[in-house]
Amino acid sequence: MLRYKCTIAYDGSGFSGYQIQPKGRTVQGELEAALKRIHKDEDIHVTGSGRTDAGVHAVGQVIHFDSPYNIPIDRWPIVLNSALPDDISVQHIEEVTSDFHARYSVIQKEYRYKVYTGKIRDPFSRNYAYHFPYEINEDQMRQASQYLIGTHDFTSFCSAKTEVIDRVRTINEISFIRSNHELEVRFVGNGFLYNMVRILMGTLLEVGIGKRNPEEVPIILEKKNRVNAGKTAPSQGLYLWKVYYE
Amino acid sequence: MLRYKCTIAYDGSGFSGYQIQPKGRTVQGELEAALKRIHKDEDIHVTGSGRTDAGVHAVGQVIHFDSPYNIPIDRWPIVLNSALPDDISVQHIEEVTSDFHARYSVIQKEYRYKVYTGKIRDPFSRNYAYHFPYEINEDQMRQASQYLIGTHDFTSFCSAKTEVIDRVRTINEISFIRSNHELEVRFVGNGFLYNMVRILMGTLLEVGIGKRNPEEVPIILEKKNRVNAGKTAPSQGLYLWKVYYE
């Protein structure tokens, strides 16, 4: 068996999320169905770097799978893409050793969150950014984001439904990219809890419109209670941008 | 009655085209349904600058309608957008005199055609650009486009189903905007025949990949027969960008 590491992009609009489930169209489901067809009806399990929710996009999700096939490496993306629906695309594929694991070998992840700030809604970004037509003070958001950098217990910034016990994570970077009516926020860290980027983003936006002070952020962290943070920003603005391995 | 000139944007992916028809969701149909709701069940007819086909987008389509309502002008977009589905958006609205006509008063139109040239397909542009993963010689395309500028009989560059008798049109500008994996071609002229931009684009792309010489273009024009031009480029790359009035 050969192990393949595979970088994929998908438009999350048409999926009930990454992870396979009994009902609804999923990214993992489509990947496994495509691999099954390629492998003459043999089941091939796909392991992702992590899940993404319904509506969340990926530019650089990483998965691995094992295959008995030794297809030339530059043929693999073509073979896979011709078997996949057009809202998923294999961007890159490489052979890796069997100790590579798409989830356990992750050292860092990058998410981006896109906000469309135009006053009037834009039909082209409705599934690809969060329409937030308010005056935003980016400086205040930057200040607030500084309190999030570093190693913290992010219990206040994850869904109350989070089952993981250890909620300590390290955020290495939060940066802001502005162009015209689009604000893109980059989050880089060693791991993100359930809904964490969306709650961080929702809270930063509340700072941006003056509903909260940047100085509230360390207090929210300290409370270790989801109710203290801001709203969960909607899924369509979120992109799993890159997964970093050793 | 007051006449309103209204600039609208729409994502063409979910429409069977602009013009109302017995079956299928149309832009005109949605606009008239929204106006009817706003006008307490009164029928309000909408006149567009022209039709766009299924899958074709608009950034600046212009329509006019007459209304007995004297809603403050800055309230109109809000009222209309709250009644419209989220793949159509009213960008701007102004009151005009009753001699303004969205179709007959047009002096010039601008269309843009987007091509995605990345080798591997991009799920995010599948409905918003034509995936054309070949080496393109832009210089050759520029050369070919020069033969199209000016006043010509464009019979060879419109659908064989075109019913209009007079196929003489003037193209004032064809320009190329390149960024990364995207090539955007701008077409400005006094009018465009049925499928004209898509056939022009398909022909230019055939020049771009060396299937045709730029010098063939004047010969194609002269033949006045659709069969001599290139393929019709697909609808999802086309945008009605701007409509110019006096």
UniProtKB/TrEMBL annotation, chains A, B:
Pfam families cross-referenced by the UniProt entry: PseudoU_synth_1
CDD domains from the UniProt entry: PseudoU_synth_EcTruA
Catalytically driven reaction(s): uridine(38/39/40) in tRNA = pseudouridine(38/39/40) in tRNA
GO molecular function, a single term: RNA binding
Keyword Isomerase: yes
Residue numbers annotated as active site: D53
EC number: 5.4.99.12
Residues reported in the UniProt entry to bind substrate: Y111
Annotated GO biological process: tRNA pseudouridine synthesis
UniProt keyword list: Isomerase, tRNA processing
Residue intervals of the Pseudouridine synthase I TruA alpha/beta domain: 9-105, 144-246
Alphabetized InterPro entries for the sequence: PsdUridine_synth_cat_dom_sf, PsdUridine_synth_TruA, PsdUridine_synth_TruA_a/b_dom, PsdUridine_synth_TruA_C, TruA/RsuA/RluB/E/F_N
Entry superkingdom: Bacteria
SUPFAM superfamilies xref list: Pseudouridine synthase
NCBIfam families cross-referenced by the UniProt entry: hisT_truA
Cited function: Formation of pseudouridine at positions 38, 39 and 40 in the anticodon stem and loop of transfer RNAs.
Family statement drawn from the similarity comment of this UniProt entry: Belongs to the tRNA pseudouridine synthase TruA family.
Subunit structure as annotated in this protein's UniProt entry: Homodimer.
Protein name: tRNA pseudouridine synthase A
Biological source species: Heyndrickxia oleronia
Gene transcribed to yield this protein: truA
